[in-house]
Amino acid sequence: MTTLSRILFAVGAATMILAGVPTMADEDDASSGVMPATDKQYTDECGACHFAYPAGLLPARSWEKLLSNLSDHFGENAELGADVAQSLNAYLTKNAADKVRNRLSQGIARSIGRATPLRITETAFFKREHREVPQRLVKDNPKVQSFSRCPVCHTRAAHGSFSENEIDIPGYGRWD
Amino acid sequence: MKMNILSLVLCTALSVHIASADVVDDMLKTYQAAGAQNFSADSGDRLWHQSHSDPGQAGKTRSCTTCHGENLRTKGKHVRTGKVIEPMAPSVNKERLTDPKFIEKWFRRNCKWVLDRECTPQEKGDLLTYLRKQ
What residues does each domain of chain A span? Predict the structure, then answer.
């Protein structure tokens, strides 16, 4: 084989190998990530008490229902001025699971069907994703306590990423 | 020219420094107009630390300290979500008592949570008088 042939062969082989390897980061982000909560008013107001759940985790009708009854927000008073509530509602419904072109969000929306869940943790999608996580790691784990505390285990939840290889459960360790 | 710039800088610095005092004083004036008077830091202190029975859970109590903690100069924690709450004391947290809308919003929610009703103008005035000294 001539040197040129060897070079061409090497380049050809490398190209074939690289083309065959899935672009891990892109694939991973597309199926395990949603657009994070970027609206400052939302993160200020709603992130004051809990994780600012990305809008793409619930359908628009769920957000509307939540925002219309803030005086009884899962047993707490989360009242807001009418103008702020309206503005938040607009942001959340516009970026909701059934409205955005995001693979994960669309998957969540489809799994919910026609229901109007208020809790992300009670959607069929969420339960399916977390079915292998035992009680002792979450509810009975004083460092976690609840599935609703996403960023405690999902280290990049604030970036909208829930990738399995980013999980680190306090007192337990990585999931993968 | 130099003196004008200097006075401009000094005026800005001074106005920023007294902004927080203005906010509380303005709010106290509003409460006075609603009938409140003789605001007392001691009354505010008592109100802040008072325990009330929890309407939802028998045997449990609620107080401002439930979330804000016993020491106002340290961080608190939301009793239900675990979310960290920055220190309440203005001496430690420069953002406290600087935004009237923010203050009224949290008065509305938190008084309802602790007392099961809104705080009266007198109570709010007493609480602010107590908190601004911390």
Answer: 39-118, 130-176
